[in-house]
Amino acid sequence: MRSSALLLVLLAVVSHSHGKRPRDPLNSFYVQATVGQPWPQPQAIHTTPQQYGVHPAAFHFLVNQTSQTCDLLTSALDRYYKLIFYPYSYLNYILDPESVIDEIKDKPKKTLFDLRDTPLLKRLNVYIQEPCEQYPTLESDESYTIVVTSDSAVLEAVSIWGAIRGLETFSHLIYPDDNLGLAINQTTIIDFPRFQHRGLLLDTSRHFISIKTLKINLEAMSNSKMNVFHFHIVDDQSFPYESRSFPDLSGAGAYNQDHVYSQEDIASLIEFARQRGIRVVVEFDSPGHTQSWGRVIDILTHCYSGGKPNNEFGPMDPSRNSTFNFLKKMFSEVATVFPDHYVHLGGDEVDFDCWRSNPDVQAFMKQMGFGNDYSLLEQYYMQKVVDIVGSTGKGYAVWQEIIDNNVTVKADTVVEVWKDPYPDELARVTKLGYRTLLSTCWYLNYISYGKDWVNYYKCDPHNFAGTDAQKKLVVGGEACMWGEFIDATNVITTTWPRAATVAERLWSAANVTDPNAATPRLEEHRCRYLRRGIPAAPVNGPSYCDFEFNR
Amino acid sequence: MRSSALLLVLLAVVSHSHGKRPRDPLNSFYVQATVGQPWPQPQAIHTTPQQYGVHPAAFHFLVNQTSQTCDLLTSALDRYYKLIFYPYSYLNYILDPESVIDEIKDKPKKTLFDLRDTPLLKRLNVYIQEPCEQYPTLESDESYTIVVTSDSAVLEAVSIWGAIRGLETFSHLIYPDDNLGLAINQTTIIDFPRFQHRGLLLDTSRHFISIKTLKINLEAMSNSKMNVFHFHIVDDQSFPYESRSFPDLSGAGAYNQDHVYSQEDIASLIEFARQRGIRVVVEFDSPGHTQSWGRVIDILTHCYSGGKPNNEFGPMDPSRNSTFNFLKKMFSEVATVFPDHYVHLGGDEVDFDCWRSNPDVQAFMKQMGFGNDYSLLEQYYMQKVVDIVGSTGKGYAVWQEIIDNNVTVKADTVVEVWKDPYPDELARVTKLGYRTLLSTCWYLNYISYGKDWVNYYKCDPHNFAGTDAQKKLVVGGEACMWGEFIDATNVITTTWPRAATVAERLWSAANVTDPNAATPRLEEHRCRYLRRGIPAAPVNGPSYCDFEFNR
Predict the structure, then answer these.
(1) Which of A399, A500, B103, B229 gets the most CB atoms within 10 Å of its CB?
(2) In what residue span(s) does the Glycoside hydrolase family 20 catalytic domain sit (chains A, B) (predicted)?
(3) Apex CA B37: angle with CA B34 and CA B39, to 5°?
(4) Looking at this predicted complex, what is its ipTM?
(5) pLDDT per residue over A218-268, tens digit each?
(6) Which domains does chain B have, with CATH numbers?
(7) How many C-alpha atoms does B231 have within 13 Å on its Cβ side?
């Protein structure tokens, strides 16, 4: 599918607005949204002014007879039908499939009788080339094509994941129209992602976020074609992961027992993500950022002052075998709970002071011949952890400090760059031959007044001096929403639609970089979120959506 | 009541925490909330460790036989009973009084049998000295005292408004307790506001905000004892006010006809505010900020370039009588729709360029002998408007530019200071003898990362060089949430609890200034908002609430 270069050449990338809004010299005072433009911008899209009506009683999805199919496709078709025709009931439906579609709220604006003289789009034919994978991976093919002509449209994809991305795009092409109720234009799209890893990190340790809210966030990710949920599940502050092997970890380390993700919660979250082609990459950050782990299990370094333990704790204690025995058991469990090939091992911000203060650690340093170089101790720790996780069959990602501190890791490690100057670090990491992810410029938790998304939009993971081979090692990036000032009250409104601008950077062609051209499309996308029940906040200045939040 | 200086001296201001949370050396990693501490800090509060249980089946409000009473009191007692005992159903109830209390969600944690050996608080006796006013005013008395001893408590107030403030405080004193379900401590409080005008501005022109969301905001204001809703209802971008006299104003000037406040909407909002002792001060800003007014009614100045009208419009056109005839009719209507004594007339950011370009305005300047001094034209306009509004019997507030531009206004005008350096401006305005409001340091729409409320908390309206007489002219201040990047998705989470820190500055004693002391109380107040269904965002760093939002 990716090799359809000919068709790419044939299709001009046309931004064709079908706007029906009245022209008004005064409306330079607020942002005008596009109508029926997808977000993120497809690699190639051609539309014409030819409109078709779309009506729930006259439209259906059809799986091509020769297509591969599977439960993922069946449920995706069910979801997208509801999303297109019953948007106001959709969120309730996906959070609680027993809930009832609110026909009054979602009643189609036009009857079939109203549309009797109108050309209607009657079906979308879906065709998938290859058998469905059970879970998405870093290597999954997400390409697809859409052709909307006459009364029928076609969606073709190599994989189920491409079909899901294509269905999302298809749902963006359909727009509310005063004359037709819902309409779609004659359109041809060829599309595939520029980067394979388009991630979003949420931190559930500084503040707990309910599974319900995490699911709303996954739905929002899927609406912008993001495909990796980086689940920063535990940290110093709290340990909300309910471990089967070590239930005391959350028993003592969670804020309280209402602030715990049970095994069922996590399974349900992973399934919700899988349905949307989203990988769940969990992070168990160590040896630092682990204070909440150590409340009942003695694995942290005891800090000393004046020759005595001072009742403070440092990073994991690498001088004791018991630490690694614990980690073996812990990561064996994690390997079975989280199906994704990758586990994020953290490794950031390790403070050496407590290690330095502890006599047993000092003795261990001597025994190992590390001298006073505590980065060797860090390397020793990380290599042990990496071996433990490797032995479960998993791959791993780490924060950049591991490389900065010259720790040797396996060749297939993914290194996440989060510090400035990021171009230097990207060059350095890829020169060492590691695959890399960029997150430095996408720390969405650092809020500021105004159109701050323009800075996210301008940041590019290929913005560094390196060879083509080095550029290819950049697998994508992640928007990060750290939780110091974020919880269920504001995580969705603060993340969306700002994260969608990162999503477009990581999906669309490298030359899609003009924030002014993006603004009206982003405004439409925000209104689309609102119509779907997701409270995406205003980011472009004064504006309105036909359907506002919380009416 | 205010003269109870003796009792004030007798009561030490004691911050006594009844916290039952386990002590934990690791929880320095997150903020600990107080337990049962009111926000804003009362003028004087004394509590003891003596606890009483509070149970819905054993507690009732009682209006003292000799007390004044009225419908406002009856409905306040009904509301606070539900708020105290059915907090999770409360918001639904006040937004839709037909809705049903969700007994399952709100079931008391303890039965009366559980509490058989516990001292219980059985009643709150309410006593009001003076007959109820129908609407709160700038001069209303909000003082009250609360005494909780043995099995009965007493709330005394001069006015209904003081009783409402006292009920709010009483509801803060009651806290969830593992052993008692709900508990209250032996407490004595003497309380009154430091400033009479404790306002919050919302802007419904840059983005529309539904009446439902405006009511949630009023409830949040009442939870922090704020008493003025500054309703910046229209501006350049849109005109959502449905005028009886000029329905075309919203017909053409609203974003669309779903983005309009009907007369019924506004009446219902004003009643909701009145029930909470909140004044609704509406702002119809002119002569600038009026682009949306001029879409169908020809009242704006036509701008010229190259000797011809250029299809752009400027401020209201003061050279035509028709402008003032329109304003007469408009403000007569406004005077009947909004019962508060004050109307805010705006007057900020008037651009003279368009006036300068217009030949009719030029001719009028000549005729009036204004030379080239367009601030004289502004003064002419404002004095006409002020006379128009004055003739309806109303008082008025204006933004500081009116004074900066040396426009003479009536002595009872309230001048709102919004520019830096605010101490100079406060000194200047009060020296001229005008009453003044401060908002410069409380533009909450200017978000930034971290604990930004500390800056709001430090800002004081008496922080300027002036005589005691000048200080007395400062009637209070307003937190402003301008709407460029704010709509129903994020207005509550961005405003709360940040506006509550302004509320404490304006209510509590001048020496309540330590942000570190305030932090745990603010954290409790935030959790109180969540328990009441209002999504107040985290502002103190990592933390948790027993009841999180969106579970």
Answers:
(1) A500
(2) 195-509
(3) 110
(4) 0.94
(5) 999 999 999 999 999 999 999 999 999 999 999 999 999 999 999 999 999
(6) 5-191 (3.30.379.10), 197-513 (3.20.20.80)
(7) 27
